[in-house]
Queue: 4 jobs
Job 1
Amino acid sequence: METVTTLTTLSSKTSENLFNEILATHVKDDDRAVDLQPIMHIMEKILHDVDRVINGTHGGTVTLKKNTTLLTFDNGMHEAILADILNVSGELSCNCLVGENAHATTVKLLETLKTYSWNTKMVLALAAFTANLGEFWLLLQRGNNNSLAKSVAFLRQVPEIERLNPLRDGVTKLVQAIRNLAKCNAKFMTKLHSWYFSKETQPISEAKVEIIRATYWTINSVVQIASLLGWRNKNTSLTTEAGKTLIIQLENDVSQIYDILKHHLKQCKDYIGKEIGDAYKTLLILMQRPGGGDIVKILDRFLRRDGIDKVDIEKLRSKHVLFLITDLDISLEEITVLNELYQKTESYEIVWLPVVDGLYNKKRFLELKASMKWYTDVPAILEPAVIKYIKEVWHFIKNPIAVSLTSEGEVTCQNALPLLWTWGNEAFPFIAEKEKNLWHNRYGWRLDFLIDDLIDPELRKWIIEGKLICLYGGGSIDWILQFTTAIKVVLARIGVTVEMVYVGKNNAKEWTGKVTAELHSHNLRVLKSERHFWARLQSMLYLYTKMRQGKGLSRDDSFMQEVMKILAFDGSEGGWTLFCKGADVIVRLEGETALNIIWKYADWENYAKKHGFLEGLNYYMEDQNIPHSCVQLKLPFISSEIPGKVQCCECGKEMEMYYMYRCCKQ
């Protein structure tokens, strides 16, 4: 009963003319989607500290834990958004008066925030007010014992603390009400999937109208609160009964808006939850048909737009389809490799399924879409039931996957990407029997298995010509420069030519980009597609262990031990190198060991003169008791399957297994 009264009260105080005036301030702009979480984090921090100041001692201080940092903006947020918050903050500080002028200021603030969603307008206005509130109480708190704060407080006309004591309880409740409202409003953007929230169905449409009303009255209340606290308003007496009454009224208004939004949030969550559940069940039935079904029906279901801009998928009928499922972090290099594979075959089609939330980076989405040569006439935001199916049935988490479906809609492989990275288009039709045949026919540790024309055509040519080749990688620019200098000195001394190629460092895109520029300045060659190189190595290990059905890896698996050595070498902080003659890998060395041996050329000079550079180096190493250093192996989460027991490629001991979660790929 109380909820109904509250709803009626807010609706009745917003006349049709006022509502139309509010709507006129809004300009729809899809590019201004904002991630509210960083702003909410900062607001919560400020309001929490203000609450502590109000209820603490006059001279109390608010301390932060050591190393506390504020969150950084993401998802396209930039200085312009902070500038808008600052503009609103300035309006609240300078132009706030009660009565009719509160409405004029509210409309002006709505126009300042015209390109944001209604939910975002509310949060940004509250953020601006919170910043002012924090400054106000900080000056108030410090004014008694800090001359700088006292001077600034005088110019800002912050009243003395004694004048505010009678309002302490009221302001405390008001601050708490603002915190509750901001959190509830943000949940509309974080808890309700935008695919459904973009619909004009009940109760969604009703909630949208109430959010518009709530946004206006929230900003209107903020304007009045700002005026009440006395920014440049000498006429407001904070110690009068009228001031207390206004605080109580504003706290009631904010709490009322909170109750309204909470009511509609629950209704929308219940509605969307039921819609997702029903749609998910329908999708399960469709995908579980014996022998599959019509691929067009499946495509139509996965790409459904409910008749709005309906996609043209008829041309994919009778085609073998790969659902390429990614977020927006897929690299352009990965897309380039897939483009080349796709353009060299007519065996399959690729359909991109981007898994993003409602606050996706539109510019990034369009950039990726424009770079793809395959079918990309897809919704930017997939239906929630489809995303639920992709995550729960096909186990998509973060890394890209490619689900293979026949023309009848039967799933033959839940992730064909490792097959494509390893075998290219030879892996089609992406079934287990084909994969086993490929391993049987090409099993052997040779460089021509690691390098193809997509990874580096010139390097591939050198392999065919039987040239002496040195591949090296790692995460230390100092080691790279020391190693390349040492190799040049030694080879010049014995008159041998070697082709040297830097292959990058796995899972370190930003770092590799910086190092690449440095290497080019030293005329050092870099692999054309280092991302593909590392993806192939990881895919080989994944596919091989999967084929062995959980038996694990041992030192007897010579091929995989060589793959593991490179992946393990890469896991160290230094570097590593691999010497080949044509396709035959003859010598592989960990970074520090490589430097020590190369600089000790005098010790193995006779070996080199007798057997040749590489062969001599290999014989010398066999005669020396070079201690090994055990390694760490970092593997990506390709699917729910893991290798099981793995033995160290150096000492043979069974390695401990860990899950590793990493954020910054440096």
Note: Residues 2-62+78-274 form one domain.
Job 2
Amino acid sequence: MTLKNLSLILIALTALTGCQSGGRDTIDSSPGGAALGKTELGACALASPLRQLHAGHDRAGDARLQAMMSAQPATAGAALYGSACADSNAFRMGSGVHDMTGPAGDSISAGYEDPTHVLRGIHLRQFARAFALESPCNGERVILAVTETGFLTQGLRQSVLEKIAADPELSAHYAGENIMMSATHTHSGPGGEAHHSAYNLFRLGYDALVHEIYSTALFRAIQQAHRNLEAHPEPGHVRLAVGELLDVNTNRSEPAYANNPQAEREAWLDSAGEEVRVNKRMLQLRFDRADGRSIGLLNWFGVHTTSVGTHEPLISSDNKGLAAISVERMMGTDYLAPDGEDRFVAAFAQSDEGDSSPNLCFRENPYPDISIGCGVDTLESTAASGVKQLARAIELYDAGGVELRGGLRSRLTHVRMDDIEVDDPVVLASLDHPAELDSTIKRTCTAALGFSMAAGAEDNRGPTQEGIACSDIDPAANLAGDIETVLATIAGGATGSGYPALPARTVGTLLGCGLTVGSDVLPALPDVDYGCHAEKPILFPIGTTELISNADLPMQIMTLGQLAIVALPWEVTTTSARRIRATVMAELAEAGIEHAVVAGLSNDFVQYLTTREEYATQQYEGASTHFGPWTLAAVQQSLRPLAISLRDNTDAPDGVPAPQTAPGLPPRLPYLAADALMPGTAYGEVLTDAAEAYTAGDTVQVVFASAHPRNDALDKLNQAYLLAEREQADGQWQVVARERDPELIMRWHASPEAPVAGQLIALRSSQIEALWHLPRNLPSGRYRIRHEGTAVPLLGSDSLGPRTPFSGTSSSFSVSGPMDDCPGYPALF
């Protein structure tokens, strides 16, 4: 993600007409004040033309959502937290943020099951962000942490909890039950950090370096948040704002959504009477000190972070990351501030994004069209999605919101998900599905993935097709459909509507539907049952081994005043989340909880959670629902006693022990550190230099002879490979941008290039290409671009020989400007 410190803000904004000085002290952060909107960058976000990209996709006025958003008198204090919290609005608080960017070369992205999507450079750096809260009225503490990663795996959570347990300062206050960790689900971050092989398979094994970077950064963000809280004993206030956000997300799995009950769908209509098929609600917390100074915001909105897509081989925190870094830029966040000092932290977390896509034009411009997100390319689409979320967050922040009143409480349990019979009469009474989707005994199954999982989602296709289901076993029709698929693939080609699809319907229904215990395909195994997967033709029988995936899954509910956060390890579809919120609110509303948000991708990862009706269609999401058709009902059944334990202030229901795992096989092939140089060059040498003069709005390109970015990926956290600098009056050079900022993109080029990942290729030469999109409001002056790296010239016996730091600097160049009051795209917005 891109982050800018206070000094960068001072330089970038001083040329703007009537701009603020850029420091936090110049910003009106009084409750309800227009703090963010009054900054020049905030005003630019609100006025950005990118907000109009595909405007009118949605209609306002979702009546059900409007009712959910209406502010109600706070009543959660005494009812939920006891008499001491009856009228309490006080919270102690702290925030933390730490760079967690993974290796920017030869890393395979998480999210896309595609080993050829190798990351070679940085669009936006990744960050871990955390908030620590304490309630003086009931003495409880909680941690809410958000990572800009594809997943929050059990192995990563385990490593961070182990670090916390080993730290006397933190372990006195925090353990698993009161710590919530969530991922934004960017698909453009390095993968391979999981302990479970299912999530490392297409990353070609477990990557210990990625795991170390992620766990170190997340722990440090949590540590910063705690120390910031401890350094500020005075209580402040947490404000909640809720609003509708349009033209940002669309349902990518409409056949599945349409299979939900009509009455349920008709409960969610817009002002034109049309179905609202994805959650349009943005919910945001604002953390204010007692004197009104803000230290951060935490935002939830459900949309996939897949704007960048497979079109770009760059690390990126995607649309949510762009929104987060932009807010921190406005507030002058200092990422190197000493622990204990305030730093403004903006976290844009994930909600119910299971079937929610940011690619609003995927129907008109189907994958792999580069304008799938309505922009001219995927980076413009990323900027548009990010600035729309950013602008709405600014509006909610500046509106102030209502104060949270009451205390804090958290309950967590682990449930064995592949062995649950749904027998809760309340949950059973809530089910409303056709008789053909029913079964006398409703139970979860041994984990397995279906054939349509390999099809990918509609906005990022895989090699098979969706809708391959055991409810449709007609060999002749399936064979005809497969022939039609082959012909469409030939006619459309890899760049058209006939994107290559394997003729899998015949094989899927004949083979996959026979994959049950006791069949001729799979012999009976103890404690294994694939026979209840109903419509799902099984492609990958995951089984019960912890080496592959996890079935002992965490479920957590955390309450902050009148807000309940339901943390689940799934990607939760829109209708599944509506039912989950209803289940939780049925138990907590009487205790004063007014809002519930589903925080998906939290504390572990186990792919998708669909309704029974959606599952029956066997679209990508249903085929990726591990534990069969009754998984959602089992989740609702498990959440009810958890909510009741919160309401009644009793212990969390008994569950299975939290799993303790080790990195699964196989390990990633070793990286052979040996950086070659092209003849006659030196590390850091400028191969392509800048021109002598530019105008604000131009793009500067500089290429350096360099080394593999994996050499110093851990050392580069909160540092930079690329720095754009401006000459000061005293001849010193001041940093104005780094590759964490949206305007400065880093691309890594290796020779020889590797088609997948070059772990075993030694003696490769590297080049780092800097592309600086000069902001249109950049002050005139002289600038240069500097590169810093680390080379390993000789192959060491431990695969890492002597390390040689180096740097290189372009020629200085003049920039005439500014040309506008705002940065403009592609610099920012």
Note: The first strand starts at residue 92 and ends at 99.
Job 3
Amino acid sequence: MSDLGGLPTMSVVPSAAQFHAHATSTFFTTLLLISFTLLLLFYLRRRQKVNKETSSLRLPPSPPGLPIIGNLHQIGDLPHRSLHQLSLAYGPLLRLQLGSVTTLVVSSPAIARDVLKTNDLSLCSRPDIATWRRYSYGSLEVALSPYSPRWVSARRLLLTHFLSPRPVRGLSAAREEEVRTLMNTVAAAAASGHTVDLSKSLMSLVSCIVCRAVFGKRFAPAGESSMSEIGGVLCLTAEILGGFVAGDYFPWARRWLNAVTGVHGRLERSFKEWDDLFEREIKERERAGTGSSEDGTYASVLMRLLKEEQSNKEGGLTRDAVKAFLWDLMFGGTDTTVTTLQWAMAELVRTPRVLARAQEEVRRVAAGKSYVDEEDLPRLSYLQAIVKEILRLHPAAPLMLPHECQQSCKVAGYDVPAGTRIYINAWSIGRDANLWDKPDEFRPERFEGSSVNYQGQCFELVPFGSGRRICPGILMAEWVIWLTLANLLHGFDWALPAGVRREDLDMSEVFGLVVSKKEPLVLMATPAKLL
């Protein structure tokens, strides 16, 4: 510094720190400009190529989009609702450009039939999504992997050994024991005058049932319905899979985008937790020897199959494939089942008429019993109608897992080029006023005497999908849902906490891989006076 008139002044020559800061700022500004220019050039070139390829095709209606991002800006925090509004304006088959991904959105049962049945083989693949590929050990599991002969074999194995009627029935004792543990936990809260956080209790229940089926143990304190170590891993995974991942919409920049947004790091941490769990359980069974295969758990069955294939040198089932199956079995039905139960109890306490009728049916069928057994469930027709109505009104996955076109075809008279991503908006179909009388109302009676079901042949109710990609765990899910609801309604009278009116119960949603209730469901339980 120099002294001019007694006032200190900065030297016209910058310091090393100033020079470094200026250079850094200039470098990043230049890098940003270069990146944006390259991105724009890539977009214009790709757009020109796409326009040339599709100029002769008959494509579905599409709202105008913006350069580079396409229609992404028109998708809000609740995409199933945003897409529903767009479908009202542009039709039940909607074409969107989400970043660089061409997407179709289906919002009518007739077009859903065209996608899931008529063109099932052409449209039954899955897109290549980085998070999916990681959790599936490089596309070795069933739910998230692209269609291939290996996928067909994997699905057959999953159904035959784990999700067909015989193995599902074999888990009835575990389901009933865990539901009774939940009932004891609720009874303890009721006796002390405390509220019950059903959201947390239901997650504990379902995760314990799944853990017992897969590993033969609960991962939670004995006799308690409390969150286990698995619950945290499940929640984190659902958050990652259900969140917005920029790389999914700009595949050519996926690695860079997932790194700078932190997705890659979170994904690897979550994946490692799963992998460590699976490796620990596999090694435990390897140490135990062949006798462990007789316990009937999913993990032991997989280890037996792995050993048999290694002995026969077939090589179709690898250690990573075993882990991929374990991930499918652990994650596949947990969040969706919990969410369905949560919405069901919320709607029931908001609708006393339905709650009273459901309780009358359950208590009549299970008269003289402390608990409802699985043998009672087929006689609970009104309860089953309630479950159908919940799956219509609150499908756990309102935007079914996306399909990808593997060979060009026509849907509803429009051309669908290979590589197109397709979403079925089950939420929109369930709210269609042309299909359902007063579609926003919770009215289980609409299903009484109706042949409509969710087994994949009625396209006005497709919460589990249809065709080759129908959820293989339907049977397991419905038995857990029926048994849990039946017992909660049989054993307790339910009410909102003091000071909370029915109309004030928060029913807002939070979007993810499944759409769950934004706020926990907290209720008061009073032990029922059973005859």
Note: The longest helix spans residues 16-54.
Job 4
Amino acid sequence: MFEAKFQSFADASSSHDSAARVAALRDALARQSLDGFLVPRADAHQNEYVPKNAERLAWLTGFTGSAGFAIVLTDEAAIFVDGRYVIQVRQEIDGTILKPVDISKTAPSAWLADHAREGARIGYDPWVHTSGQIERFAKAVAEKKIALVPLDANPIDALWPDRPPEPMGHVAIHPARYAGETAAAKIKKLREALKGADAALMSDPHAICWAFNIRGADVAHTPIALAFALLPKAGAPTLYIDDAKLDPRIRASLEKFLTLRAPSALIGDLETAGARGEAVTFDAATAPVKLVETLRAAGGKPRVIEDPAALPKAIKNKAELAGARAAHIRDGAALTRFLAWFSQAAPKGALTEISAAEALETFRRENGDLRDISFPTISAFGEHAAIPHYRVTDKSNLKIGKGVYLVDSGAQYLDGTTDVTRTVVVGRASRQLKDHFTRVLKGHIAIARAVFPKGVSGAQLDAFARRYLWEAGLDFDHGVGHGVGSYLSVHEGPQRISKLGATPLQPGMILSNEPGYYRAGEYGIRLENLIIVEKRAVAGAEREMYGFETITLAPFDLNCVEPKLMAPEEIAWLNAYHAYVRKTLSPLLDAKTRQWLRDATRAI
């Protein structure tokens, strides 16, 4: 039997309680003479996947998406989401209590400036906002003399009677054969980036786990340990982590090169550093404003900069790249077994979105080395496939019939992190579906085949994937690709292929290639592979040139492809990719699945 061990399909939305909860929050604010409160979906590290006790936005509003922001004022409230969640937010919140706002059109700071009264006092939790976020708010509301008030305690926590405890996942050493580089070598790199500062405060758990070659289990689907670290220009780094997460063997291993301290010691250590007048760097993307201002108030010199660990972490070494390739072969075999099974089971009419997701996870677990899924599987049929970040629940679960099924999924293995999306049709594909699918596929191929000079960023490649949709007056509202970690986050920066992707792409970076198209109320299409930036030899080139190696292995649904819309070089790429998939995966498959794969990857 199929089952899911790493994901739940329970409906986590609690919008039916939002009226009472927002009212209680307003009462709590009034007792502190506050006129409003800022509620991000964030923890003290700005993680994408936050621990359950930091899901304050979901508890208050009912919205369960991975990105959002609410502002609660005395007489009105708004919740801000991006294009991924414009449909979902309306389904989950109580629209009589909260007004949904498209964050791409109206920033929360601008909304606050327009809606809060002059001289209002707006509270915020300084542990869940960065300095940059608060500075943007302060600048936006300055003209109306609105005060932003840091609070000693988050008022939501006192209202949340069954708030989960702090996570205490056990820490593990990441094996050297997968890390490919010692912690000492990584620490040396980071020290070189201090550039005159006395120390660096590390607040991104992904960077900390990468730098010290550890992994954890504090949040869902991403093997990180929630912790802070202080890296001085000389001497041992200090890791601020709860002792309950460390067994004696792990503690002994870490104490060989760093000092272990309780998280409660961090504020005092920053005050001591400040009293000495030290300059300390803070990560602009993840450091809580609480820590920055603690150092400043004590007399120190905070320097808020880009995390010096972000780029070296993104550029994978040989061992990490080898691990990624190996993980994708095993993962591709599991996904192919699922697609073959689905092609037989779906037409019988007994499948649902949940049973399909359970089946895919089961096929992955049969690899024998699955540590977790890398995010909740997006198992979406029909109109649900038009919601880019749809999450199936017991309440929303659809029966799969004739039509479009989209599955976006990934896995965590010790040697690599995967993320792949395939869209298939149950029954016959309409002419319209083939047109849309093929345009998305052409965009995918354009990225896969791209050749570009050193220094080019993802923003310069984004339009490659949209061209064929644009020609038909179509588009999609998410980026073309995000960075991917090495047994870390499935969404990693600073590299990305999007209109906002300013970081130059470098060899060794792993990204996704996932253009899509979403027809609201009908169907959605997304085609995703992971790719590695690599050097590319180009005859007569006057500059160093790069391209992409595709490492995801799984067939695209040829039943949805219209070859007449494709150029010869696009057909050649698709046939070559399918031939490689067939050759690489066939030895890992049973005879029946091999036969299915031969047909699924036939040349067109």
Note: DSSP finds 20 helices and 28 strands in the chain.
